[in-house]
Amino acid sequence: MKRRDFLKKAIKVFFSIIAAAVLSVFIYIYPSKIKERKLQFVYIMDEDDLPRKGVRKVEFQYKADDKEVANRVFLVAAGTDLTAFSSVCTHLGCLVNWDNNKKEFLCPCHAGKYDINGNVIAGPPPRPLTRLPLKIEAGKVYVGIKV
Amino acid sequence: MGKIFDWIDRRFGVKEPHKKFLQRPAFGSPEKVNYGYCLGGAAFIYFLMLACTGLLLSMYYVPSEKEAFKSVAAITNDVTLGWLIRSIHKWSANLFIIFIMLHTIRVFVSRAYRPPRELNWMAGVLGLVIAMASGFTGYLLPWDQKAYWATEVGTSMFGTVPLIGDYLMRFVRGGLDIDGATLIRFYSMHVLFLPASMAMILWAHFHMVKRQGPAKKL
């Protein structure tokens, strides 16, 4: 092998090692343990306290990984229908509020608006508000959230 | 120069090779420049202020989920002159970005980005990006509601990138949600990676300014 060819190969090997090192740095920085979100039913209120009509903001706490986590959902009651909406805006994850005068959910971050059925009526959100499963057992209401 | 400097320089040898730069006229002729040419220097002064106050803040700040907010409150309320150091850091950060922008506008209107200064323009843009990244990572560190939600929004934007968005977001957050992993990741970026990159970029920036001199006025 000529010296020139050897050096060309050596340079290739050198840069391959550098590339591998850079790649391993990115793999190192990427989180190694990403927990899987599981659907968990959390107690929010007794059946007797459920709203008959309109929108009710329900704030509750639960434990996840030994940490107290505060969360809030919206219960929308219309006749016999009861729907639970996640308060997380589908745009960039802020928490929406219910404006009872305008009858719409308003996100304070970028003015995303949803109607009472969670459908987007204005602003940047790409999807309607997330509907959460509800469970009523022995007079107690549970909402299913992904923890 | 003084005796002490000469004693050092006889051993260190920094004066002779830098004579050309140290003793050059600052600008070709004074009528070609105006106060707009000070904006970059002003931004650099803010960078130095940020570096100094940042070093001081790092002595009391604790980058952990449970301690971060408390330690920032302690810096503000308990540490002697802590409120002053933190305020200088905060306001310098704002003014740093503002002066970089003004400097960019000055360079743009005086057409100083044109050859042979394109590479220096690129270095400057990179510096702006690093400054913005420092602002973004620094904003989380007080670990209060505003910091949390700003970072929730900011990191969620990474999630909107097509195809690789989810990976990118976990990469930035260090997990699914914003928690202690995100905080220490941002802290590391804020106090180690970004300032080190900024120092290198600024060295290149100033090196090219020295080599090429100021562009002519409009």
Oligomer: heterodimer
| Known CATH architecture of the largest domain in chain A | 3-layer Sandwich
**CATH level 1 class label of chain B:** Mainly Alpha
Low-confidence stretches of chain B: none
Q: Which class do the helix and strand fractions of chain B yield?
A: mainly alpha
The first-level CATH class of the largest domain in chain A is given as Mainly Beta
Explain the layout of strands and helices:
The complex is a heterodimer of chains A (147) and B (218).
Chain A: H1 3-29, E1 39-46, E2 54-64, E3 67-78, E4 81-86, E5 97-99, E6 104-106, E7 113-114, E8 120-122, E9 131-132, E10 134-137, E11 140-146
Antiparallel strand pairs in A: 1-11, 2-3, 3-4, 4-9, 5-6, 6-7, 7-8, 10-11
Chain B: H1 3-12, H2 15-22, H3 39-57, H4 68-77, H5 82-109, H6 118-140, H7 145-159, H8 165-173, H9 180-212
Structure, described:
The complex is a heterodimer of chains A (147) and B (218). With 147 residues, chain A is α+β, with helices and mostly antiparallel strands. Chain A has a four-stranded antiparallel sheet, with no helix packed on it. A four-stranded antiparallel sheet of chain A has the order 5-6-7-8, with no helix packed on it. In chain A, strands 1-11-10 form a three-stranded antiparallel sheet, with no helix packed on it. Chain A is elongated, with a radius of gyration of 25 Å. The model of chain A has no long low-confidence stretch (mean pLDDT 91). Chain B is mainly α and 218 residues long. Helices cover 71% and strands 0% of the residues of chain B. Chains A and B meet through loops of A and α7 and α8 of B.
